[in-house]
Amino acid sequence: MCSSPSPDIFVPNQWSQAANCIASSSTPPITLICGAKNCGKSTFARYLLNILLTRCDRAAFLDTDVGQPEFTPPGFVSLTVVHELTPDLTIPCLKTPERSLFFGDVSSKRDPSAYLNYIRSIYDYYQKEYRIFDKGEKCYKILMPLVVNTPGWVKGVGYDVLVDMLKYICPTHIVKIGISTENKNLPAGKFWLDGKYDRTIKLLEINSARQDSLDRSVLVQKDARLMRDLRIMAYFRQCFPSGSDISTIKKLAHSLTFHCPYQVPIASIKIRHVHREVPSSEIFYSLNASIVGLAVESENLPWCLGLGIVRAIDTVKGMLYVITPLQFGSLKKVNLLLQGYIQSPSCLLQVRNCLCTC
């Protein structure tokens, strides 16, 4: 079993040493990865997952980066259990999470408190499902390693959110990735402990894998909006069989236009807008042609099963027409539509002179 990344990814020795140190822990580690935007957190997280999977059958991945998630479309806080290596770290890899919450935005800036509640809820689920009490040693033991990916907003309120996250999760290992531009980095040392020393947490400080001509660690600039659009389109590409001839964005847009939507009775669901209030008279106008979270109400936060595009609304028949890759069995559980600020890629809204044939 090989844990090596794709040839286009250079893994420095300190990255390998950090990953092997974590994977060699006597108990399943809980590792949180943090650092400035685009410093390589996601790449290291997936590399670490591969190293862990050479030593155990499965590992959990808690993704708190709602703008650039690894295994889901944008807008989600999720827990994914990974069973297989991902040999090419450069290719986005959609997976079905075990649990996910639809935050409905690509940044926590709009509502940091709600964002932290989502993270706590997902982490509590992990603790409930993958922790047992050892009667002999009279303590709790973790059954499966966890990797926590975090966003790159590490200044101002973003810093405060990260500190709260660290204090709540209490990881066994923290990987802090830095670059040569010091003012973009997190503070040195165990910055979240308010000066207190905690020997139970192992801090690993490494540099970004990207270097400039002077061999300094640098950030990699990415077109975040384009990457989000591509991930959304990859998600809705799942509406079609893998062998379908849908090799371009234009073909996907046309295919979705002709794709037969599910008919969802309006009376069977609730509609909730995340982070904002919408007048009841405007609800259907705001929903039309929008991306929504397909969720199931629960005692606490509603679990989200996936995304849908509201293709059309017929208020006379009392029907919503929704396109989603979810199977009918899963869709039958949905009783709540969540609308946030996740926008449909513009290229999917520009197909003209096409009518649905179903």
TrEMBL record:
Pfam families: CLP1_P, NOL9_C. Gene3D superfamilies: P-loop containing nucleotide triphosphate hydrolases. Residues 35-237 form the Clp1 P-loop domain. Its main location: nucleus. It comes from the Eukaryota. Belongs to the Clp1 family. NOL9/GRC3 subfamily. This is Polynucleotide 5'-hydroxyl-kinase NOL9.
